[in-house]
Amino acid sequence: MKQKRTCLFILILLLIFACQKFEQKPPNEKPLPDVMIDSAVDRAVITPDDVVQFTITVNADPTIDIDIPEVAKKFSGLRVIDYETDLDREENGRTIKRKRYKLKTDETGSYLLPEIELFYRTPQGEKKTIKTSPIFLEVKTPESLKAGEAEDIRDIKPLFIIPYDWRWVIYSVATLLLWGIGFLIWKWIRVRRSQPIPLPVIPPHEIALTRINALKIQWEKREIGFKVMHYELSEAVRAYLEGRYGLRATDMTLEEIRREINTVADLGSSEKPILSELLGQTDRVKFTDYMPSESQSDTLICLALSFVEVTRPREGVPTIEKPVGFASDIA
Questions:
Q1: pTM
Q2: Cα angle vertex 287, ends 299, 208, to 5°?
Q3: Residue pLDDT, tens place only, 125-148
Q4: 23/168 Cα distance (integer angstroms)
Q5: Which one has a higher pLDDT value, 1 or 256?
Q6: Which of 42, 86, 136, 315 fits as disulfide partner to 53, beta carbons 3.0 to 4.6 Å?
Q7: Mind listing the domains of the chain with CATH numbers?
Q8: What is the DSSP track for 66-128?
Q9: 230 and 286 Cβ atoms separated by less than 8 Å
Q10: Residue 53's beta-bridge partner residues?
Q11: Could you tell me how far CA 82 lies from the centroid of its own chain?
Q12: What whole-number distance in Å separates Cα of residue 54 and Cα of residue 14?
């Protein structure tokens, strides 16, 4: 039994010690100033029929003697209809003193309640002063006060449906279209630049006429010999047949050309023997020691030019007349 009492006594001591620790102030809590003063009104907006309460509160250390100054004469435009001073008390080890004034006015307008200045002396004998901030008081007529309250309190507005903004969609689509058009134009220009420029197609008869005329000039100036002239003349005519009729005349023998020209519908019956004779005379000079006269060679060149002119692509092709003095007549 004695042990139970001892344990109970120790438990009570521990509880008391814990409560004291709990009631201690935190070590980091800042101490309150020696003296604090505050002033306040119960309402900031009144009517001439209302009474406003103006309260001065002083919170001070108990070791400091404080007296709240009398401020009744400082209320300009307001009259004091009552006041209370017996409002002192002790709270948390501090002395709380209050003075409360009941004020009233018959005139509407704005009033400034003055700042309250308090003088006191610290325990060390130092003189100090603290003061409150001034307070604004608005006195309005009952009608204006109700109108103001009506303006302040309004019913909830109905929901406002914000229309969908399609502009960003239009701008985005337009931007994409411009990019697409620009890309297609760039692609088209690139393809055009990469394509080779087609060379002009020269008709086979123009090539043949140019070649034979150049050969004729060289022959007349005797810049080339008999065999060279006849060889070049044969090659020019054979190349013309390839371009004009699609025959591989440059790779064919004379007999093969004679057989093939009989199958060409565009070549007239009067032109075929002339062509055969023309190629036969040139081949005779090319492959043998036969040397025709200069006039016969001139006649062959004229016959080749006439053949090309007559067989060129055009309407109303005339027939070729064998020139006088053709080589086959001179046997």
A1: 0.41
A2: 45
A3: 788 888 888 887 788 787 776 665
A4: 65
A5: 256
A6: 42
A7: 35-149 (2.60.40), 204-329 (no CATH)
A8: --PPP-GGG-TT-EEEEEE----EEETTEEEEEEEEEEE-SS-EEEEEPP-EEEEE-TTS-EE
A9: yes
A10: 102
A11: 75
A12: 48
